[in-house]
Design a protein that fits this description.
Shape: globular
Strand content: 25-35%
CATH topology: Rossmann fold
CATH class: Alpha Beta
Bound molecules: 1-O-pyrophosphono-5-O-phosphono-alpha-D-ribofuranose
Oligomer: single chain
Helix content: 10-25%
Number of strands: 9
Structural class: alpha/beta
Order of helices and strands: EHEHEEEHEEEE
């Protein structure tokens, strides 16, 4: 049955396959193994940054073979645009108390780095025991702030990407693979 499932009707002509679902899963398996080793005995809280990271967090947490908690935060800088506005707002605050906890923030993509910088400043104020960042995708060429991402899935060129949680004007988040958009 699964072999019959394909998403070709959802893929416009200007989308080019960049990273397959299988490649993503393989990388998450590796990252999950590293995280389980690094956080053994610490019961980390994984904080997914909505909306984009919910698909990633859902898959990633099942590759981390230690006890963990999850929570979500929602911030926005892009709206429907393709460039960061630089004005970041918290649209949904954390629910969990992260004081003295090992926290890993889960991002789908780091572009300018402004969102991660904002989250680092904001979450540090709650005095977590440790605060690390994971991103599935990173665009080294676009980074304008000096931040360190502890776990990176894939470094990619400066191109607009979509699928696996990432949107094109709020749609296409349900694509299983990641595509680069041209034009
Ligand atoms: C995306 C992404 C990051 C941010 C990265 O969020 O999830 O949070 O942009 O860009 P930066 O490094 O330039 O700050 P977006 O505002 O598009 O919201 P979404 O996750 O709801 O699509």
């Amino acid at each position: 049955m699964l072999e019959e499932f394909n998403q070709s009707t959802l893929i416009p002509e200007n989308y080019e396959l960049l990273i397959t679902h299988e490649e993503i899963q393989k990388r998450l398996f590796e990252l999950g193994k590293n995280i389980a080793k690094d956080y053994e005995g610490q019961k980390p809280i994984l904080i997914g940054v909505l909306n984009g990271a919910f698909v990633l967090l859902s898959d990633l947490m099942r590759y981390i073979n230690i006890d963990l908690e999850i929570d979500f935060i929602r911030i926005s800088s892009y709206g429907d645009g393709k460039e960061s506005s630089g004005h970041i707002k918290v649209l949904k605050p954390l629910s969990a108390d992260i004081k003295d906890r090992a926290v890993i923030v889960i991002e789908d993509i780091v572009d300018s780095g402004l969102s991660v910088q904002f989250l680092e400043n904001m979450l540090s104020a709650f005095s977590p025991k440790s605060l690390k960042f994971l991103t599935l995708l990173q665009k080294p060429e676009k980074k304008i702030v000096d931040i360190n991402i502890d776990y990176v899935g894939f470094n990619i060129d400066d191109q607009f990407v979509v699928g696996y949680g990432l949107d094109d004007q709020q749609i296409k988040r349900n694509l299983r693979d990641i595509y680069a958009i041209f034009g």
